[in-house]
């Protein structure tokens, strides 16, 4: 890094950055007040997320990348404001419920912040280089220098703010210990937190950016550590590809995490390679044999990209698209752009490939930034793609009505998932399948992912009975038992998928057992009086013990008991269904009833 270039901010720029940070804190405080006082922003997530995106991202872009306050080029990032507003507006639309009801928030904001944050970090490198040189960046070296500077500045600033608030927490705790809670109350007040925190951020940022030589020293230390670790990473990659022909691919697929492991290893090698091999002169690191081994590992990286893509495709082909898998596919595609580019350039140019790789990095960086921005716009919303794909799998018959994940579309894909469910309910495919239409309607009625309120009319026993899949098929749940389930507030009444109800005819103490979806234990019911069908009792909970023989353990873990369930002779509360064993844990009420029945029987014998 060139230590002779301008390394301090002028006074006007320093004061301008501090003022900008303070204004950002005040803007965030204003948005906080809007939420606290339930202004119209709370009711419309689109405006709320759009304003938050602009208030957080645009000042942060300036704080990290501005060079001189008076430069005209500083007007250029203002063009980002409409884009950021659009990105935030779309995020708010995705999380905007289609009806006036409340549900839990979606985990979209974190992924949005990560994607947009990385994109803006890359764009800030281009802006910083252009502001410093006065022209569009054409060489890689300044971009690398600024990437180190930005990353270390953000890390040190985070440490600085963490220590600042730790000291304030100790301050508040110290005075609270002697009965003075003023400072504790003050520091927890939003009117103090936002302006003061961002004022300290501005001051800390100016101090860090004005100490350029310290950042350069930290960078040299990091580069030394990475230089020592790069051969190890290369050795891991080479050994993995060397043993792969003997082990085969099946062990990789069996892990279920093959794509993630390969991605982490490849990204680490790419990051370390760029951190070490940034010089294009004769001062290349390592002896030639070690340097050749590292470059060989980089040349072989496309194999890892293909294996990771294959592993991901196997999961998609088996289970269909999900939002996580589509994000993984995007990251794999971007990583593959780097691995294939590096490999081809190294094979083509050999030792003279580094300048070409560095020029490719500039283009690939813009590709990454553009892709991360586009997927957060309506043009390429991955939630919409996933919802449409899941519905198509159902229509094509690759997913059954019983296996279709209504909850995933409703609560994991935001508004695109809900709209896809509604469109499916209105389609001819659903109209010919009443059970599918019913489940979609129940799903759209849910206001929370783990809804506890009944989704059916509890005054209509026929409607309640449709919440159960009865076995054997000719059996019918007794109305008094349905009334008991309503009285208990059974989870079956708040589920989209029907509960499984089994009638057992050969056990007078266990006549019905009911399994809720996603539950590993069943609820057992029996009549208080064997001669009457009006008084039912929950006898206990049926839990899985295991298999009679070890070879059936895996089978019993994946199955539930059937109507052939029967008690094992001589064993208390132990039951068998096929090769599987179960235990009945009685309820307190059933135990009391048994004690009372024994006492009455004893009185009869005495009399």
3D structure, described in words:
The structure is a single chain. The protein is of the alpha+beta class and 607 residues long. The chain contains 24 helices and 8 strands. The chain has an 8-stranded mixed sheet with strand order 1-2-3-4-5-8-7-6. The termini are far apart.
How are the SSEs placed, and which strands pair?
Layout lengths: L10 H26 L3 H4 L1 H21 L14 H16 L12 H26 L6 H38 L4 H6 L2 H20 L2 H36 L2 H6 L2 H19 L11 H12 L1 H19 L3 H27 L4 H21 L7 H15 L9 H7 L1 H13 L1 H4 L2 H12 L15 H5 L2 E4 L7 H10 L10 E5 L8 E4 L6 E6 L8 E12 L5 H5 L8 E2 L6 E4 L2 E7 L1 H19 L1
Parallel strand pairs: 1-2
Antiparallel strand pairs: 2-3, 3-4, 4-5, 5-8, 6-7, 7-8
Helix pairs in contact: 1-3, 1-8, 3-4, 3-5, 5-6, 5-15, 6-8, 6-9, 9-11, 9-12, 11-13, 11-14, 13-14, 14-15, 16-18, 17-18, 18-20
Shape: globular
| Structural class determined from secondary elements | alpha+beta
Number of strands: 8
Tell me the span between the first and last alpha carbons.
Answer: 103 Å
- H/I helix tally: 24
| Main β-sheet description | 8 strands, mixed
Query: What percentage of residues falls in helices of 4 or more residues?
Result: 55-70%
Side-by-side strand order of the widest sheet: 1-2-3-4-5-8-7-6
**What is the arithmetic mean of pLDDT?**
86
Show unreliable segments.
1-6, 98-105
Radius of gyration: 32 Å
* Portion in strands: 5-15%
């Amino acid at each position: 890094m060139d230590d002779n270039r301008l390394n301090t901010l002028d006074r006007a720029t320093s004061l301008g950055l501090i003022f900008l940070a303070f204004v950002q804190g005040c803007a965030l405080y204003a948005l906080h007040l809007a939420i606290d006082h339930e202004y119209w922003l709370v009711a419309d997530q689109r405006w709320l997320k759009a304003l938050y995106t602009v208030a957080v991202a645009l000042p942060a872009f300036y704080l990290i990348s501005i060079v001189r306050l008076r430069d005209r080029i500083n007007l250029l990032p203002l063009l980002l404001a409409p884009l950021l507003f659009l990105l935030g507006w779309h995020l708010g639309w995705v999380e905007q419920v289609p009806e006036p009801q409340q549900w839990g928030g979606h985990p979209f904001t974190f992924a949005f912040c990560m994607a947009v944050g990385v994109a803006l970090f890359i764009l800030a490198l281009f802006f910083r280089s252009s502001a410093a040189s006065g022209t569009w960046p054409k060489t890689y070296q300044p971009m690398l220098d600024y990437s180190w500077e930005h990353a270390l500045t953000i890390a040190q600033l985070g440490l600085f703010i963490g220590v600042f608030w730790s000291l304030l927490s100790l301050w508040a705790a110290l005075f609270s210990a002697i009965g003075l809670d003023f400072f504790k109350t003050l520091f927890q007040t939003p009117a103090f937190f936002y302006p003061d925190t961002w004022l300290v951020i501005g001051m800390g940022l100016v101090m860090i950016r004005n100490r350029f030589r310290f950042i350069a020293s930290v960078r040299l230390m990091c580069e030394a550590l990475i230089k020592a670790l790069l051969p190890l990473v290369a050795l891991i990659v080479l050994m993995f590809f060397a043993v792969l022909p003997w082990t085969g691919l099946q062990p990789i697929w069996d892990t279920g995490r093959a794509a993630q492991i390969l991605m982490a290893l490849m990204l680490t090698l790419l990051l370390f390679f760029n951190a070490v091999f940034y010089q294009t002169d004769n001062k290349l690191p390592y002896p030639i044999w070690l340097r050749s081994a590292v470059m060989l590992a980089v040349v072989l990286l496309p194999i890892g990209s293909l294996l990771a893509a294959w592993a991901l495709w196997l999961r998609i082909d088996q289970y269909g698209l999900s939002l996580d898998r589509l994000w993984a596919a995007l990251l794999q595609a971007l990583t593959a752009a780097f691995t294939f580019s590096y490999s081809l350039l190294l094979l083509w140019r050999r030792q003279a490939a580094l300048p070409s790789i560095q020029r490719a990095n500039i283009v690939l960086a813009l590709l990454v930034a553009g892709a991360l921005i586009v997927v957060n716009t309506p043009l390429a919303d991955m939630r919409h793609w996933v919802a449409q794909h899941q519905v198509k799998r159902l229509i094509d018959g690759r997913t059954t009505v019983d296996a279709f994940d209504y909850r995933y579309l409703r609560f994991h894909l935001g508004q695109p998932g809900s709209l896809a469910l509604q469109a499916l309910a209105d389609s001819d495919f659903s109209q010919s399948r009443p059970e599918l239409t019913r489940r979609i309607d129940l799903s759209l009625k849910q206001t929370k992912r783990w809804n506890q309120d009944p989704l059916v009319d509890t005054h209509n026993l026929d409607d309640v009975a449709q919440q159960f899949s009865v076995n054997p098929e000719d059996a019918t749940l007794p109305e008094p038992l349905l009334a008991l389930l309503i009285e208990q507030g059974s989870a079956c009444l708040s589920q989209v998928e029907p509960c499984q109800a089994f009638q057992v005819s050969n056990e007078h103490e266990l006549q019905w057992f009911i399994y809720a979806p996603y539950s590993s234990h069943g609820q057992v019911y029996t009549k208080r009086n064997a001669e009457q069908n009006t008084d039912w009792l929950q006898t206990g909970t049926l839990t899985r013990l295991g298999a009679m023989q070890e070879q059936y353990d895996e089978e019993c873990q994946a199955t539930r008991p059937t109507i052939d369930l029967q008690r094992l002779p001589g064993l208390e509360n132990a039951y068998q269904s096929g090769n599987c064993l179960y235990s009945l844990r009685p309820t307190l009420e059933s135990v009391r009833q048994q004690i009372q029945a024994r006492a009455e029987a004893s009185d009869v014998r005495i009399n």
